[in-house]
Amino acid sequence: MDGTSRRDLLHELQELIFSAETSQETATRLAFYPLQASAARIGHDLKVFEALRSSEPKSLEQLQDMTNAHPITLGRLLRYMASVGLIRETGINQFEANQTCQKLATPEAVTTLTHFFDNGGPLFQEMPAFLRKTNYQDVIDEKATVLQSAFKTDLDTYAWFSQHPALLGSLVKYMALEQQVRARWLDEYPVERDAQNWDPNLPVFVDVGGNVGHYCALFKHRFPAVPGRVILQDLPHSLAQALQTPGVEAVAHDFFEPQPLKGARFYHLGWILHNWSDEKAKHILRQIRSAMGDQSMLLINDMILPETEVPAFAAALDLVMLGGCGGRERTMKEWRELLGDVGLVIRECIMYDRELCHGIIGVALS
Prior knowledge:
Elements: H1 3-19, H2 23-31, H3 33-46, H4 48-53, E1 58-59, H5 60-67, H6 71-83, E2 88-91, E3 94-96, H7 99-104, H8 107-133, H9 146-151, H10 157-162, H11 165-182, H12 191-194, E4 203-208, H13 214-222, E5 229-234, H14 236-239, E6 248-252, E7 266-270, H15 278-289, E8 297-305, H16 312-325, E9 330-331, H17 332-340, E10 344-353, E11 358-365
Parallel strand pairs: 4-5, 4-7, 5-6, 7-8, 8-9
Antiparallel strand pairs: 1-3, 2-3, 8-11, 10-11
Helix pairs in contact: 3-8, 5-6, 8-11
């Protein structure tokens, strides 16, 4: 079963289950969703899911010995986890892993839940009050988002994270996990075709705002024979942590400033523009456009939302962008308008993960 068919099946099954609920049951289910996430987060802290997955059913006493939690508190937590299907209760104070427990015990589940619970949870809780207060206006100022209200700060998202290393660590781990999906464009886009006979002395791939250089490293690994310089650009504090990839140059650069590298074959913006409002995104694009030549292609690696029936994860991430930094996910129509406003035109678009709405947009001078 492909990803789209599986998603459609899950949607139909959910609709069937929800249709059998009473109004009170629907309201209760939604109201207690945060508690389910809390229970899963506690389960990760106590390593309950890992303990149950790795052996036969365990008693409350055995789990208490492993976790050092008070038996009464632990018993109440386990009882709730079993009631919502996170684990299975097999008898009085007896528990074992079910399919959900097996999945929650994986490293990727721990990374995902930790990031969205710790960094996203306060935003979700604050969002209704914030939007009421602002009369549901568009959120475009990165220093006046839900994050400032939720975490009681005047700092923008990036400055705030820099002062909270534990939460930043959760974000970085999640982004590394996402990188496994977001780098698939390298297998889809015709890089070798477009870089054929390129001058080896000129930049062939410039990763603008490329953090520590994952995309540059993958580019070199995937296309070792492609001629030209591969260059990582970011702020100095990011470059200080950059991967030491042979053949990759590191150049300090703020993407709100004019692009110093002229006439590259490919400029790459990997999940950058969704962090910013349209006006800030246009400013970033203008800096790159000023450096592009006739053969240059700007590769925008980002979400491309469908006009209707947006998948739940993509729609949720759009609201995370609204709450966290005043950014947004965009439809193809919105991408065309944004790019057209700064004198750029879409030449190619490849959806490399339709289920997650991930695509690579090839953009040239208009």
